[in-house]
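Phosphatidylglycerol/phosphatidylinositol transfer protein
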Amino acid sequence: MTRNFIFVFILLATLTIINAIPLHKRATSFGPCPNVQDTFTVTMSPDPLISPHLTTITIAGEETSGRIINPLASLVITIGDVVPVQPPSVSPVCNSTDCPGSKVAQTVTFLLNATLPPSYQIVLSVGNINTSSPQMEFINDEILACALATVP
């Protein structure tokens, strides 16, 4: 009887511990950036980010503020907290012959090879890049559309 009681106790304790372990990863949730009117939807693979790993980010959306995306527009992906963990990934949103106007649809693949801190932000910004600036800043610091996620 005592052995049965001990066996049942160990079995219940084991099941309780196993049930407490999360078996699924949480998906990263993107929202609008502060002080930017337009945003877009974002899908990311892998989600959550893994380093080092090839990362694919796809954005899609439409500007509602009436600003038009032109050939200077670029998608800038910044990952980090106060300081980026690696240089931002920059890719053009369109080329000179095929600009989307007010719609944005872009897929970017880049190598994330930096060590990720326990908590960080992922900022995806679309704006007109000042090509003469070594820091790849936006012209007039104007961001056309933006999405932000905080990973705890």
